[in-house]
Amino acid sequence: MLLDAGIFDPLINLLRRIMKADPLRIVVCTAVLTLLVAIDGDGSSTYIIVVSALLGVYRKFGLRLEVLATVAVMSAETSTLLPWGGPVIKAAVSLDVDVSELYFPLIVPQLAGVAAVIGFSYLLGRSERKRLGGKVATEIEGVEHDGLDTDDQSLKRPKLFWINVVLALAVMVPLVAGWVAPVFLFITGAAVALVLNYPNLAIQRDLLARHAPNMIPVTSLIFAAGVFTGVLAQTGMAESLALSMTSLVPESAGSFIPLATALLAFPLTFIIQQDTFYFAVLPVLSSAAAEFGIAPEAIARASVVAQPLHAFSPTVAALFVLLGLMRMDYGVIFRYGAKYGFGVSVVILLTALATGAVPL
């Protein structure tokens, strides 16, 4: 609802002024915009906003669309490593751990991932500047949104911009700090945002209907995951699998299970559905780790470090929203961009190991 109200519109306008016509600035600003817009945790809406804002700019100045797609994908998934993001929520639900305890040690690795995204974007932008002859104009003129923006302008609330910013911070700061339960924060924040920006009951009803498709599958998934993991635990299947695995692991190697989990996450979250990994594979790994005294939070953190690479997987539905908007084949984005997602994931993993978020 805050996106509907236009909380990111001033940022988009500012970035478009900063970009001028410099390919380097355009690519770096693409990363910054995506990182910020993606904090809502919804990949599809992030791609729609970013592509609608910047596709016309890339076409006008001859920048490769593969660059836009690559920067948007690796930025979006790095930004969703937040307490309300899909990977963190799924890992927390799967292993029955507190979201705040899971996320807090991940802050530094995530910031390292953000730095890696900016760094790769800088390199890509510099390459585009060189390819285009280093031409830099004074400003971007005559570039429209290319007809892709699905936002309803009647929902914009520019006069309430700063109030909405305060509301967003009032939800995010206690959430990240772990002061208040996420459920209470989001229910309260959503209710306040709805009444504050859209007091008309008809508009409220329309907005709830508009955003319900994003809420219902996640809610259903959490209930189903609870049943699935409950069956695994109560029937003894998870314990049996864990004991079988631990019998194959030497006592001296038990401490490396978190690292093994992180390394397994690279290929497994790319080739199989994310839910299968989090709700079928991860509980078994966590049970095996528990035999060596390793907390489930450590396994949960290890499981999410490969998300920037996972974002380029053919199992990610939001990626095909992006490809559809840009009329691009999957093979193109995989060949061009997956290596950058892998690079960002490696930076996050190395930082997590160095800070102890993923223990050795």
Task: Characterise the protein shown here.
- By secondary structure, the protein is mostly helical.
- The chain contains 17 helices and no strands.
- Mean pLDDT is 83; it is low at 137-150.
Topology at a glance:
Blueprint: H1 9-19, H2 23-37, H3 43-61, H4 65-79, H5 86-95, H6 99-103, H7 107-131, H8 161-177, H9 182-197, H10 201-234, H11 237-248, H12 257-271, H13 274-290, H14 296-304, H15 307-310, H16 317-326, H17 330-355
Oligomerization category of the chains in this entry: single chain
The number of helical segments is 17
Number of beta strands: 0
**Straight-line distance between termini:** 42 Å
What is the arithmetic mean of pLDDT?
83
Name the helicity range.
over 70%
pLDDT under 50 segments (min length 5)?
Answer: 137-150
The gross shape turns out to be globular
**N-to-C series of helices and strands:** HHHHHHHHHHHHHHHHH
Which class best fits the helix and strand makeup?
A: mainly alpha
What proportion of the residues form beta strands (DSSP E)?
under 5%
Rg estimate, integer Å: 21 Å
The major β-sheet equals: none
